[in-house]
């Protein structure tokens, strides 16, 4: 098989996985308060920013994020952006309407609440149920439910390739 053929097969598998299993977050989470805990925090009320450091835990409904450091910006409507770094940052949230969670791990996680864009970088791993995606950068648009995965050589993605595992889904009889 040629590299072009392999890329087409990989892309087809990824698209099938994404179309069959959209990772919609629990919708009720957006209406819940955000709770942040850390060893220390620096808040700037004038500029609406906060820097949380040391064993940071962010919880909003079923969403839980753990990191070493989290930078948060707000605007007049509330949460604007979150930048989390750690070794690694962990993210977990229940999917809407099913008893299943999305889990993600990466050294760097950026979330743009306005645009609904989540980016995991530096050797990222995302699990949804038993299925898994690994790559150097995973970008997920929560509004369009579109993923983009880019590979780069590191310990988690040998030879710089994107790695996807899709388990068969059982059919109800």
Give a verbal description of the structure.
The chain has one helix spanning 3-20; strands at 35-37, 40-44, 49-60, 63-75, 78-94, 101-112, 117-128, 131-141, 146-150, 163-165. By secondary structure, the chain is mostly beta strands. Strands 1, 2, 3, 4, 5, 6, 7, 8, 9 and 10 form a 10-stranded antiparallel β-sheet that branches. A hairpin with a 4-residue loop joins β2 (40-44) and β3 (49-60). The model is unreliable at 1-23 (pLDDT under 50).
Radius of gyration, CA atoms, in whole angstroms: 17 Å
Mean pLDDT: 80
Helix content: 10-25%
The structural class is: mainly beta
Number of helices: 1
Low-confidence stretches: 1-23
Major sheet characteristics: 10 strands, antiparallel
Write the element-wise H/E pattern from the N-terminal end onward: HEEEEEEEEEE
β-strand number: 10
| Shape annotation | globular
Oligomeric assembly: single chain
What proportion strand? Answer: over 45%
Give the CA-CA distance, first to last residue: 37 Å
